[in-house]
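hiii so um. not sure if this is the right channel but i have a protein structure encoded as tokens and i wanna go backwards to a sequence. like what aa goes where. can anyone help
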């Protein structure tokens, strides 16, 4: 199953909900991230229930439910698809959505975080494995970001660059979400001739009343600082 928790710990090796339920004779609920066969991580709620006969525990039953906001994303997708605001490869919004539609969805600019995400060493992927495999990496990373961004807006800004607009309470919450995305992308597995694990560099800032394009310039520079600091990390523009 290869599921991980919020910290990236592999639960099959330590902290498995199923084994906990059996060992402690106790129903347990947990939020985990499963490894999809296509490579991305999806958020799942799991309930593990001990199974007994004649007072003896014989095993456990697990119930899985999807806790992503895919319905929210799909609803917007259906409305906007015919207006050409969807990137055909990754099926997230394209940059025209930012120019034409985003302001209509953002009501309180003080409560929105912007994350500028760039896939590390992506040119090497295209050069070594070809553009078709590069497209697979783009789709896996985009799907991981979209499935785990709750009610945020995910945009493919160009090439291997993505922007996430997400309503949050404060910068600390935004940092936690950015780190979760970074970790989940790193824990994704893509199979070429061998297993490939992508990483991302993330620039982060709060919108704080700025115009969207000005805020994008800020997170763009923050993302490049994350690259200069060693990649696979987050840099906050405060």
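sure thing!! here u go:
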């Amino acid at each position: 199953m290869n599921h991980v928790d919020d910290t990236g710990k592999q639960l099959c090796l330590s902290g498995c909900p199923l084994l906990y339920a059996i060992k402690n004779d106790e129903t347990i609920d947990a939020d985990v991230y499963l490894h999809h066969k296509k490579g991305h991580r999806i958020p799942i709620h799991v309930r593990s229930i001990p199974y007994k006969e004649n007072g003896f525990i014989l095993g456990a039953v697990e119930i899985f439910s999807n806790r992503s906001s895919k319905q929210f994303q799909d609803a917007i997708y259906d409305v906007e698809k015919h207006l050409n605001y969807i990137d055909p490869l990754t099926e997230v919004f394209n940059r025209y959505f930012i120019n034409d539609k985003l302001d209509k969805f953002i009501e309180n600019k003080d409560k929105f975080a912007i994350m500028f995400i760039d896939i590390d060493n992506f040119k090497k992927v295209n050069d070594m494995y070809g553009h078709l495999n590069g497209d697979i990496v783009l789709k896996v990373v985009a799907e991981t970001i979209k499935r785990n961004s709750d009610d945020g807006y995910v945009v493919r800004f160009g090439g291997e660059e993505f922007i996430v607009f997400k309503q949050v309470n404060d910068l600390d919450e935004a940092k936690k979400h950015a780190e979760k995305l970074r970790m989940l992308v790193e824990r994704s597995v893509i199979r070429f001739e061998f297993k490939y694990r992508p990483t991302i560099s993330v620039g982060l800032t709060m919108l704080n009343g700025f115009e969207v394009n000005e805020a994008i310039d800020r997170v763009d520079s923050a993302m490049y600082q994350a690259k200069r600091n060693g990649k696979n990390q987050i840099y906050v523009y405060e």
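oh and The CA atoms of residues 133 and 192 lie 8 Å apart.
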